[in-house]
Design a protein that fits this description.
Layout (H helix, E strand, L loop, with lengths): L1 E6 L2 E4 L8 E11 L4 E10 L6 E4 H14 L19 H20 L7 H8 L3 H12 L12 E2 L7 H37 L1 H21 L6 H5 L1
Parallel strand pairs: 1-6
Antiparallel strand pairs: 1-2, 3-4, 4-5
Organism: Parapercis clathrata (latticed sandperch)
Main location: membrane
Protein name: Sorting nexin 3
Length: 231
């Protein structure tokens, strides 16, 4: 079950009784089926066990989809996107690792997601046979969607109906505004990147050429050349 407490600013999830962190390290290229299949594995080490397990991206993807299915009322951040080509290039592997670390930090710090049985299974199971059993058990979980509400322990304090409705309306307005604003920011940032790769790039090249021309002019005046300026 998951507990909701009443804080000074309203209801909030009860903090995890056993907070922990988790490291993701040592991305390593692995093969199976005599080299037919190649993948990258990560060493995942939770702080409360200090026992590492090794996970592929597909395991993270499985966990992500379980979280979405289980916790429809909680925002679960996206995993780093898949890539069809260049999956084994060093830059891509390092970039994906950094993003997986950020994703994992959010999971372990969340008072509800961090206590999910499927998440614990992901972090602790090192045996292939037990992994498959736990995976099937998580996929057969019936307390998902609306049924998740049956697992909640709610505060006993009386709640004013009008106050609750006002809070819900305020959150709906916030969520819509935040969604629209993030989409706008993403669009503007993408446009800026496109311009820097296109027209802006040419303008900066022109500016660089102008400075280079001034430098060449100074070099034509030996008494006041760049060596003199450097001194």
């Amino acid at each position: 079950s998951y507990t909701i407490d009443m804080g000074p600013l309203g209801p909030l999830w009860k903090e995890s009784p056993q907070p922990f962190t988790c490291s993701i390290e040592d991305p390593t290229k692995q093969t199976k089926f005599k080299g037919i299949k190649t993948y990258i594995s990560y060493r995942v080490t939770p702080s409360h066990t200090s026992r590492p397990v090794y996970r592929r991206y597909k395991h993270f993807d499985w966990l992500y989809n379980r979280l979405l299915h289980k916790f429809t009322v909680i925002s679960v951040p996206h995993l780093p996107e898949k890539q069809a080509t260049g999956r084994f290039e060093e830059d891509f592997i390092e970039k994906r690792k950094r993003r997986l670390i950020l994703w994992m930090n959010h999971m372990t710090s969340h008072p509800v997601l961090s206590q999910y049985e499927g998440f614990e299974h992901f972090l602790m199971c090192a045996d292939d046979k037990q992994w498959k059993l736990g995976k099937r058990r998580a996929e057969k979980d019936e307390m998902v969607g609306a049924h998740f509400m049956l697992t909640l322990q709610i505060p006993n304090e009386h709640q004013d109906l009008q106050d609750v409705e006002e809070r819900v309306d305020a959150f709906k307005n916030f969520a819509k505004k935040m969604d629209d604003s993030v989409m706008q920011l993403t669009h503007v940032a993408s446009e800026l990147v496109r311009k820097h790769l296109g027209g802006f790039r040419k303008e900066f090249q022109r500016l660089g050429n102008a400075f280079q021309s001034i430098s060449q002019a100074f070099m034509l005046d030996p008494p006041h050349s760049s060596d003199t300026f450097n001194n």
